[in-house]
Specification:
mainly alpha; 678 residues
Length: 678
């Protein structure tokens, strides 16, 4: 923000003595020619000759201020105020001088006085007081003053720019962007405005918008290394690693001392498609500087991300050998030991990292994860709380890890709050949304989970491994429409990946798109005629289409290929249910549970339904209770339970289950409520 430049005008003066008057005249003439040192000398001689007018002290104060000798200026403005207590300009200029020496409290007090003495305070008075408030950390007060200045001069783009900065500093990024938009319309060639708006968009997770603005800022000011660096960050967040690498390397050329640039470059190189080039980058630097501990640290980060954990460990150990006081190196080695399953050693490294730097937030996260792996939940929570406390304004990862710990403890409501905070701090990180989806499903908030799915897709990331995990998460939690969209995207990118056709076929079947599902299953078997998933999925589709003979042949083929395929037994049980072979269905559901007891929640519910047809009331109720215990917010289980209770002549129990299924979102259950629960 700009400081007040005091411009000398030709001002009237009063004659006290001929010689003093001539020095004042000479001083003003020199000041107007910007010879401020000569002006100070002349005003000083006038004062020495007995000139006691407030204006002379004021003139010399101005000259000192323009020489950036602010303390001398303040002393002369103070003398002016003593002689003329209501001199608005003296209060105003002294305030500006105090602001220049970082005396923001004194500056604000002087601005207050100038404004109170002025019948019509100027926009500059509010503007410069806003500067002082912003510099002192009072961003709300600064925003209010910029607003007052804007009312007086609504066409000054700088005021909107600075008010936007004040809003950004209050984390009110959307309002800040609105101000930057107005300023850019008035001053479209201002590189700073594009840069500030890019920062605000990035903070909101709008990385595409941020990249566009950073590009504009760079075009307007090609020397802005920060804009290049931050554009790289935005590209990395969108998994556009190729462009991120290029921007980080360009940043290093422009400013090799840019904080953290090598660290960020190491992180994106580890995701590069060209692993050889990624490994070569820090390898070449190490050849030139083999005793640089930091280079080994970053080389290890690259190797870790590329999956070579042992090579990464070797690099971290070399970094520690060269620098025993590197907290970051011990923390990095602790992280890799966690991934290698050496939890006690990982904890020891985190301990050392924390001793070296007691405020190293990532080290507390590492130790928290190690403690969790060692089943010390209380210590894990203590450490992750410390990590959050030390970096609660920007450490979304700490909140996400704490959410993970709470999820593992089945404290899903608490976990959801932490995932909310992680999303708030980094709305462009798809991992935070993925974690929150799981917590929302566990708490029954399927609408919120669906919104998170949509948000991830809007981020337009190029991280296809993330989309793959997301697709499986959608299938497992019965978000079939969203899953279909995701696997369509993946198949477009990877048309020979059999697994993606399998999952898309499941989504289509669940959505009732039977011909599309059958086409995907046929495609799978064309690409891999020994695909167990292909056979049992196609068998499932044929069963829905009432081709029971064809369905049975496909599922039997899947079982022949793998007689421990629990899904095939589950599907064959469904076929037998359709054929009213309830004992055979029960046997197949039992086989599915035998081969995978933990993940076959539906098998408990379906076996209960078969048992209800067989009149086995106690067994049916026990299976339903177990299914609900394992998945308390699953509408399909409650719906199946309602059908079982109808068979067992328990109308009240059936209506309770149908109503619960309808509350969660089952359309079929709502029909049953209308049919049975009048």
């Amino acid at each position: 923000m700009k400081r007040l430049l005091i411009i000398f005008l030709t001002l009237p003066f009063w004659c006290a003595a001929q010689t003093a008057d001539s020095y004042v005249r000479s001083g003003n003439a020199k000041a107007n020619e910007k010879d401020y040192r000569g002006a100070v000398a002349d005003f000083t001689k006038a004062i020495q000759l007995g000139d006691t007018k407030a204006s002379t002290w004021f003139y010399r104060a101005n000259a000192y201020a323009n020489l950036n000798e602010q303390r001398e200026a303040i002393a002369d403005f103070t003398k002016t105020i003593e002689l003329e207590p209501n001199n608005v300009k003296a209060w105003f200029y002294r305030a500006n001088a105090k602001n220049a020496i970082d005396d923001y409290t004194g500056a604000i007090a002087d601005f207050n006085k100038a404004i109170s003495l002025s019948a019509h305070p100027s926009a500059d008075m509010y503007h410069y007081r806003a500067n002082a408030k912003a510099n002192s950390g009072d961003y709300a007060g600064a925003e209010a003053d910029f607003t007052a200045a804007i009312r007086l001069t609504p066409n000054d783009p700088a005021l909107y720019e600075y008010r936007g900065v004040a809003k950004s500093n209050q984390k009110n990024e959307r309002a800040a962007i609105a101000d930057y938009d107005k300023a850019i319309k008035m001053d479209p060639n201002n590189a700073d405005l594009a840069f500030y708006r890019a920062n605000a968009r990035g903070n909101l997770g709008d990385y595409k918008g941020a990249i566009a603005d950073y590009s504009t800022a760079i075009k307007l000011n090609p020397r802005n290394a920060e804009a290049v660096f931050y554009r790289g960050n935005a590209e990395a967040n969108l998994a556009d690693y190729e462009n991120a690498v290029a921007d980080y390397e360009r940043t290093i050329q422009m400013n090799p001392r840019m904080p953290h640039v090598y660290k960020y470059l190491a992180n994106v190189l580890g995701h590069s498609d060209d692993s050889r080039a990624a490994l070569a980058y820090f390898g070449n630097l190490i050849k030139k500087d083999p005793d640089n501990a930091e280079l080994y640290l970053y080389d290890g980060v690259v190797k870790k991300d590329l999956g070579d954990k042992q090579a990464a460990l070797d690099d971290f150990e070399k970094s520690i050998e060269l620098d025993r006081k590197s907290s970051d190196a011990y923390q990095a080695r602790g992280d890799i030991k966690l991934e290698l399953g050496n939890y006690a050693e990982a904890k020891d490294d985190a301990d050392t990292s924390i001793k070296l730097d007691p405020r190293n937030s990532p080290a507390y996260i590492t130790r928290s994860r190690a403690n969790m792996a060692l089943h010390d939940t209380s210590a894990a929570l203590k450490d992750i709380n410390t990590a959050v406390d030390y970096n609660n304004k920007s450490n979304d990862y700490a909140y996400a890890v704490r959410g993970d710990i709470e999820s593992a403890m089945k404290q899903y409501t608490a976990a959801l709050k932490d995932y909310d905070k992680a999303v708030e701090l980094n709305g462009g990180n798809s991992e935070n949304y993925i974690k929150r989806i799981s917590a929302r499903v566990k708490t029954g908030d399927r609408a919120g989970a669906s919104q998170d799915f949509k948000k991830i897709m809007e981020l337009n990331s190029k991280d296809y491994s993330m989309y793959s995990r997301l697709g499986y998460l959608m299938i497992n939690n019965r978000f079939y429409g969203e899953a279909l969209q995701t696997f369509n995207l993946l198949i477009t990118k990877f048309p020979r990946n059999v697994k993606y056709y399998i999952q898309r076929g499941i989504a289509d079947e669940k959505l009732g798109n039977l011909h599309e599902a059958s086409a995907d299953d046929n495609k799978v078997l064309q690409m891999d005629n020994a695909s167990i998933d292909g056979y049992h999925n196609r068998g499932s589709v044929k069963a829905v289409m009432k081709d029971y003979d064809g369905a049975m042949k496909d599922v039997d083929k899947a079982i022949m290929l793998n007689d421990k395929d629990d899904k095939a037994y589950l599907i064959r049980g469904n076929i037998k249910m359709a054929l009213k072979n309830y004992q055979g269905a029960k046997d197949d559901y039992s086989s599915a549970l035998f081969f995978d007891l933990d993940n076959n929640i539906e098998a408990f519910a379906y076996r209960a339904l078969a048992e209800s047809y067989l009149g086995e009331k106690e067994q049916a109720n026990a299976d339903l209770e177990e299914a609900i215990r394992l998945s308390p917010n699953n509408e399909e289980i409650y719906y199946t339970g309602g059908l079982a209770q109808i068979n067992l002549n328990n109308k009240a129990g059936a209506c309770g289950d149908f109503n619960r299924a309808a509350e969660i979102g089952s359309k079929a259950a709502r029909e049953k409520v209308r049919e049975y629960c009048k």
